[in-house]
Amino acid sequence: MAVPRQGVISLAIKDKAMLHANYMPFVKGGGIFVPTEKTFELGDEVFLLLTILEDPERFAITGKVVWINHRTTPGGRYMGVGVQFGGMEGANLQKKIEAQLAGYLRVG
């Protein structure tokens, strides 16, 4: 069995539409899709640096890769990984994201 690799990835969410598109509420504990060309495998641990909207706080949490879009993903989806939030920091981040998205309806 391979030892999970670790990596650092970062994402800056610029607006609510981007937050809505990248947030993965179906992932237990919350998760977010991070466009990246770095190569990961399912189960890899990552250190995620995340900035949300105008919030001056930069979230730095550990997570686990639970979703992968390869270059060949059909439908024009971006290459990247879905990261499941971990620990108390992850739980706090999930609450913050869901509060930001409360009442948000995407039009179009």
Briefly note the structural class of the backbone. Answer: alpha+beta
How is the main sheet built?
5 strands, mixed
Order of helices and strands: EHEEEEH
User: Rg to the nearest angstrom?
Assistant: 14 Å
What fraction of residues sit in β-strands?
35-45%
Q: Number of DSSP helices?
A: 2
Instruction: Please give the share of residues in helix.
Output: 10-25%
Walk across the major sheet and give the strand order: 1-3-4-5-2
Euclidean distance between termini CA atoms: 45 Å
What is the 3D form? globular
- In total, the number of strands is 5
Overall mean pLDDT stands at 87
Low-confidence stretches: none
Describe this structure in words.
- The protein is α+β, with helices and mostly antiparallel strands.
- The protein has helices at about 15-20, 85-100, and strands at about 5-15, 30-35, 45-50, 60-70, 80-85.
- The protein has two helices and five strands, in the order βαββββα.
- A five-stranded mixed beta sheet has the order 1-3-4-5-2.
- A hairpin with a 5-residue loop joins β3 and β4 (about 60-70).
- The N and C termini lie far apart (about 45 Å).
